[in-house]
Write a structure and sequence with these properties.
Its EC number is 3.1.4.-. This protein is α/β, with parallel strands linked by helices. It contains 32 helices and ten strands. Among the domains are: 134 residues, Rossmann fold (3-Layer(aba) Sandwich); 103 residues, PAS domain (Beta-Lactamase, 2-Layer Sandwich), CATH 3.30.450; 245 residues, Catalytic domain of cyclic nucleotide phosphodiesterase 4b2b (Orthogonal Bundle), CATH 1.10.1300. The strands form two sheets. Strands 2-1-3-4-5 form a five-stranded parallel sheet, with helices on both faces.
Length: 762
């Protein structure tokens, strides 16, 4: 459905002409709006009832001529006003005067207030914001009335339900077919309606499997009329994707089944399904809430017999979580199983009912202390200790970007840096050489090159100077004193992310917004890192740990600070020119990726990726071996935002810990740097009397090869096997095998350092 919109109409209600009324008049002229002016309450109401203006501006600065709130109430008492936005012009307050509450205005019927400002640009900005917000939304809602009128006169039975299968709409044809009045159906769950016993036992499961995956289902289905008679219907159920990329509604078209249906009827059905899908998508995208309050409907359907009806619905539910289905299958299998099998299944059920399904459990005997310490340090919040020790690191937030020397443009880069960056698209790019020639400022230079290659400035509609200033501010807030978590690590993760984004399957699965979000997330993912783990901060009772309730402390801080640094200064605000919806989507994607780098949910992310992406793709590949089918499968991923999220999480996780997959010399350098950071943490823990979360990282006794072997075995191998199966990364996997062999050799020779004593340091 194509929505046509006439020019916006504005009604100005000012008792006398002044600079403020002139400002709005000329603002309307600039915006191309039709404008009327009323001087009295009577003429204002008469004009509105005649023209039905979308925006009404009422002078609320002086009550000597008329009462602005009374005018607003009189307009609101009319039916056309439900689609109007009413703006109150209020007097400007002085600096020492406390701003008044807007609640009285809202109670009177106003939507917004405008602080007195006769600037034509200020008035224009206010009116344009209203048009692009409330006015356009109201216009789309009014257009929906026409669609529902068409549905009411449609010959086919139509039923619309919410994502929870609560009935929200039925048309008269549906009422006639089923024998119900719509008042008996609206707000009821489908599970509450009588079922026919003529359907196959697993038909409902089959239907739910299709539609929950966003797929359309079409077939023959038996149902019961209100009278109890069973009828056979030709049914087509279409899931409607709405806000957040999730299924928000199901549209069902139903006809009495007839073997002699002709092709014209099928074509008609298909067209109606498409129209309904488009209409519902429009409603979902442009409204913050669905048209019906599902919670309210559910509560209204209880009818006083809450306990009995709820229990009945639970037993008759056809919509179950996968884990519930697994448990039910096991319970059924136990009934006819031998005692030994039943006992074994009891243990299986006990495991399945735990909340940590994805986290492996280490043994208590003969376990590798390096592995145990890595898990304790990276995947838990550490031991809790009630003491007076408190660690509060200094957050030296650097909002200035005037102290660092950076190029004026991407063309104004030192020749030595240009030469190095010629190789930045290669996986073997040496980030430490860039660190050296840029005086520990590799992030700005690499960022400018990578962001230009991916068209980030074009997507964000920001100037290159803004991006340059942003990169400078972000890099200034990385701690160069950290041996590992500094801007060189951020640049390394950015490089890996850009490399992954160029792989065919990754590129084909993601949109431009996803690419931009991934590059930004990689850039900011460790900003202001103190060089200590989350476990350390929680044990020390740091102010950040208190602020974020000991959960994803650093990752939450990195994202919060990055957005604070970005938005507090217009010179470096790369988001200032994108619209609100794009910004919210981009911001959510960035936050989600940075939080995915937190290690406590490492195995959950990996297992979800394997089960949702690797295994389904592998099973499809066995049935089809041509390249075109693979391209279609990858392109289809763009229709499933949840799958895209898993890909982005896996990508940044692999980029964040890709050190063991780098060329050997780079791998060795990174191993030395992270070990040094852990050594320093252990020393500080001992010095301050804090629990030592990784005891093996003692500078005097630690075996770095053993720690690397444990890290690769426990965290890296499975994750990169899964990522390689999707993205195809033979070079990385070869480096990983070579590096693992190197660390094994050192360990077998009882060498605890980075190299054999005879070798020169890197």
């Amino acid at each position: 459905m194509r929505l046509m919109q006439d020019p916006v109409q504005v009604l100005l209600i000012f008792a006398k002409e002044d600079n403020q009324s002139d400002g709005f008049w000329w603002a309307c002229d600039r915006a191309g709006y039709r404008c009327n002016i009323a001087r009295t309450p009577e003429s204002a109401l008469e004009c509105f009832l005649d023209k039905h203006q979308e925006i009404i501006v009422i002078d609320h600065r002086n009550s000597r001529y008329f009462d602005a709130e009374d005018i607003c109430r009189s307009i609101r008492a009319t039916k056309p006003s439900e689609h109007a936005v009413i703006l109150a012009v209020v007097p400007r307050t002085s600096a020492d005067q406390e701003e008044t509450s807007i609640l009285p205005l809202l109670n009177a019927g106003f939507n917004r207030q405008f602080m007195e400002n006769s600037s034509i640009t200020a008035c224009y900005n206010e009116l344009v914001q209203i048009e692009h917000g409330e006015v356009r939304s109201q216009f789309k809602l009014r257009a929906c009335n026409a669609v529902f009128t068409a549905l009411d006169h449609c010959q086919e039975a139509i039923e619309i339900t919410s994502e929870d299968h609560v009935i929200q709409y039925v048309n008269p044809a549906f009422e006639q077919m089923m024998g119900y009045h719509k008042g008996e159906l609206i707000g009821r769950e489908l599970t509450e309606l009588p079922k026919s016993d003529k359907n196959c036992a697993d038909l409902l499961d089959t239907i739910n499997t299709f539609i929950k995956k966003g797929k359309e289902w079409q077939g023959v289905y038996y149902t019961r009329r209100k009278s109890g008679d069973s009828i056979q219907q030709q049914v087509k159920i279409t899931p409607v994707i709405g806000q957040g990329g999730k299924i928000r509604h199901f549209v069902s078209l139903k006809r009495l089944h007839c073997a002699n249906e002709n092709s014209n009827q099928k074509t008609s059905s298909r067209n109606w399904a498409q129209s309904l899908t488009d209409m519902m998508s429009c409603r979902c995208k442009n409204r913050r809430k669905d048209s019906i309050d599902i919670k309210l409907i559910t509560s209204q359907s209880s009818d006083g017999k809450k306990g009995d009806s709820s229990m009945a619905r639970i037993h008759s539910m056809t919509i179950e979580a996968p884990i519930t289905k697994v448990i039910n299958i096991i319970n059924a299998a136990q009934e006819n199983s031998p005692v030994t099998v039943a006992e074994a299944l009891d243990r299986v059920l006990e495991i399945l009912r735990t909340t940590e399904l994805y986290s492996p459990q280490l043994g208590t005997k003969d376990e590798d202390p390096h592995t145990s310490d890595l898990v304790g340090g990276l995947m838990t919040d550490g031991l809790r200790r009630l003491s007076g020790n408190e660690y509060v690191f200094s957050k030296n937030v650097n909002l200035s970007h005037s102290l660092l020397s950076v190029p004026n443009t991407t063309n104004d880069v030192p020749p030595c840096v240009v030469q190095l960056l010629e190789n930045e698209e290669s996986w073997d790019f040496n980030i430490f050489e860039l660190e050296a020639v840029t005086n520990k400022r590799p992030l700005v230079y690499l960022g400018l090159k990578v962001f230009a290659r991916f068209g980030v400035c074009e997507f964000l509609n920001c100037a290159e100077a803004t991006l340059r200033a942003w990169l400078q501010v972000i890099e200034a807030n990385y701690h160069s004193s950290n041996s590992y978590h500094n801007s060189t690590h951020a640049a390394d993760v950015l490089h890996a992310t850009a490399f992954f984004l160029r792989k065919e399957r990754v590129k084909g699965s993601l949109d431009h917004l996803d690419e931009v979000a991934a590059l930004i997330a990689a850039t900011i993912h460790d900003v202001d890192h103190p060089g200590r783990t989350n476990s350390f901060l929680c044990n020390a009772g740091s102010e950040l740990a208190v602020l974020y309730n000991d959960m994803a402390v650093l990752e939450s801080h990195h994202t919060a600070l990055a957005f604070q640094l970005t938005t507090t200064d217009s010179k470096c605000n790369i988001f200032k020119n994108i619209d609100r919806n794009h910004y919210r989507t981009l911001r959510q994607a960035i936050i989600d990726m940075v939080l995915a780098t937190e290690m406590t949910k490492h195995f959950e992310h990996v297992n979800r990726f394997v089960n949702s992406i690797n295994k389904p793709m592998a099973s499809e590949e066995t049935s089809s071996h041509n390249d075109s089918s693979d391209c279609e499968r990858i392109a289809n991923i763009k229709n499933f935002p949840d799958i895209q999220i898993l890909i982005k999480r896996m990508m940044i996780k692999c980029a964040d810990v890709a050190n063991p997959c780098r060329p050997l010399e780079l791998c060795i350098e990174w191993a030395g740097r992270i070990s040094e950071e852990y050594f320093a943490q252990t020393e500080e823990e001992k010095r301050k009397g804090l629990p030592v979360v990784m005891p093996v990282f003692d500078r005097n006794t630690c075996s770095i090869p053993k720690s690397q072997i444990s890290f690769i075995d426990y965290f890296i191998t499975d994750m990169f096997d899964a990522w390689d199966a999707f993205a195809h990364l033979p070079v990385l996997m070869q480096h990983l095998a070579n590096n693992y062999k190197y660390w094994k050799t050192l360990d077998e020779l009882k060498c605890k350092s980075l190299r054999l004593p005879s070798e020169n340091n890197y």
